[in-house]
Amino acid sequence: MTDATTELKVTAASDIEVDREALDRSIHEFAGPNGDYYVNAFHKIHDATSPIPNTFNLWAAVLGPFWSASRAIWGMFWTFLILEIIAWVQIGRGAWGNPGADLAERAARQQERANELLARAADATEKADIDRFNKLAANIQKAADSSLEKAQLAQSEALGIMVTGLLMLLVFKLVQGFYADRVYEKQYSNWRINPDNTESGRSTRNTVLGAVLIAAIGPLIVYKFTVNASLPLLDAFPEKQVSEMILGPDQGTLFSVVASWMEARIDAAAAAGGDIFDGIVAGVRSVLDGLTVALIGSPWPVVMLVICVTAWRAAGPRVAIFTAASLAYIALLGYWDVAMETVALVGAAVLLCVTFGIPLGIWFGKSKRAYRAAEPVLDLMQTLPAFVYLIPIIAFFGTGNPPGILATIIFGMPPVIRLTALGMRGVPESIKEAAVAFGASKWQLLKDVEIPLALPSIMTGVNQTILMCLSMVVIISLIGGGGLGKEILEALQYAAKGPGLLGGFAILFLAMVMDRIVQGAFRREDEKI
Fold first, then answer.
1. Cβ–Cβ < 8 Å for 254, 238
2. Distance between terminal CA atoms of the chain?
3. CA–CA separation, 130 vs 119, rounded Å?
4. What does residue 48 show for φ and ψ, rounded to 5 degrees?
5. What are the residue boundaries of the ABC transmembrane type-1 domain, all occurrences included (predicted)?
6. Per-residue pLDDT for 15 more than 60?
7. Domain annotation covers residue 78
8. How far apart are CA 231 and CA 488, in angstroms?
């Protein structure tokens, strides 16, 4: 029995030794140069029971960000590059900078002004003027003396500033030395899990890149913040000189040339496609007029009743009660007509977004090539500030509600396209293969399998489109759009806080009602499940 136990212990120790040798080889392979040091350091980190660092990497402390770059630890590189630059700026301000330069310049300007007033007092003939100039000169002289005193005090603190910078640099170096091995050990763990996407060893390319970044960033920032009068080239981009190099002398700036060229092209395109743009505006106006007649032309009790019943059927009694209360708030404060105009604007925009967005989303969900081609356009539509694309909207389509709807479509269509494509891509392939095996055609597969399974994602996209279109109602009022956005714009123009807040709450309630109605049916199904 004793021999068997001894044999098991020997076998276990042998297995542990083999595993340790394999781990050492892995660390050597990962670390490359100076692998023995990292083998010992990583074992110390693994065996440690305290969070306090128990290793110190001298090269990481001495070289700082340069070491981090050579080992591809870029997060540590950027963090300590910034911190060390801050420390060097303090050292430079104390060593060769002039901390009180600004105050000294202010004192010189104030002294010059005081001398000017004293000269005017000497030239004055009336006693009242002499007293006034002398008093002003005395006050400014007192301010100049105070500024000069502060400048001298700041200059006397130069040594303290330099010592502070040196202490900061020392602390940052020590922190890098104590934590470098721990950070590198985490990178080693990531490398073992995913070696293809984690850099290892000491790369010459990373070393050179780190050296270039340090040399390009550090000296320029230290110079800029420590020298009293830095090079003008560092303070402002020489756009006039660059424009002359590109365009030649006396040809204007690059901005004016490009802006004039773009304006001419837009005007030419608007003139050439006037009939097409007028047709688009007419189509949008027809949709808007139909919704406006239904919401504003119909008796208000009918409209309110239809909306409340729709909320009841879609989302239940609680949402219906909230909808009724929101509509009552809107009506009692006199916002009924403008609120219904807002609903018509949003409804027309959402209807057009859904009409074109869902088919595009289905196409993009089935074709990766088409989605990759359209993705930059969708990013542009969603990230470009709304005020920017209002300019071409005005140029091509004019002002008023229909152009405002077109601007809203640009901003609101990407969510429904993206989420429809996401839902289509999320349909399991096994289900589609089963439907095809049972004889489903492409149309049946789309209508009976893919769209129903993707419907939750599609409806989420519709909901996001509604909310994003509603967020545009204030912006489109800038180009003549009506509705609640016009009320908010007027409140902003006249700093009318009360009307602005009341109109904002009306928009909020409209958004909440639309959101609850659109998502209500799906939430009720989830509750049943």
1. no
2. 61
3. 10
4. -70, 145
5. 339-518
6. no
7. yes
8. 47
pLDDT value for 82? 93
Burial class (CB in 10 A: 0-12, 13-18, 19+), 468: buried
Rounded distance, CA 381 to CA 409, Å?
9
Shared domain for 151 and 298, answered yes or no, is no
Query: Which run of H or of E encompasses 123?
Result: helix 101-123
C-beta of residue 480 within 8 angstroms of C-beta of residue 286: no
Q: What is the pLDDT of residues 479-520, one digit of tens each?
A: 777 778 888 888 877 777 888 888 888 888 888 888 788 777
CA within 13 Å, CB half, 278: 5
Which of 37, 318, 350, 385 has the alpha carbon at shortest distance from 185? 37
Asked if the structure places residue 131 within a domain, the reply is: yes
Outline where 367-385 has alpha helix (H).
368-383
Counting beta carbons within 10 angstroms of the beta carbon of residue 2, is it exposed (0 to 12), middle (13 to 18) or buried (19 or more)? exposed
The reply to whether 253 falls in a domain is no
Residue 68 and residue 82: Cα distance in Å, rounded?
13
Dmax of the chain from CA atoms? 124
Handedness of CA 259, 260, 265, 266 (dihedral sign): positive
Whether residue 304 sits in one domain with residue 383: yes
- For residue 179, give the 3-state DSSP assignment: helix
Does residue 372 lie in a domain region? yes
Distance in angstroms (rounded) separating the CA atoms of residues 95 and 170: 17
Q: Please count the CA atoms within 13 angstroms of the CA of 215 that sit on its side-chain side.
A: 6
**What's the rounded mean pLDDT across residues 336-340?**
85
Cβ pair 467, 445 in contact under 8 A: no
Radius of gyration of the chain (CA): 36
- Tracing tokens 């006039």 back to the chain, one arrives at 240
Q: What is the mean pLDDT of the chain?
A: 81
Domain count, the chain: 2
Cα(115)–Cα(118) distance, integer angstroms: 5
* CA distance to 104, 236, 307, 310, 520, per residue, from 302 (Å): 76, 63, 9, 12, 22
- DSSP character at residue 251: S
Q: Rounded distance, CA 419 to CA 412, Å?
A: 12
Over residues 275-332, the pLDDT tens digits come to 888 888 888 888 888 888 888 877 888 888 888 888 888 777 888 888 899 888 888 8
Domain that holds residue 460: 274-527
Higher pLDDT, 526 or 129: 129
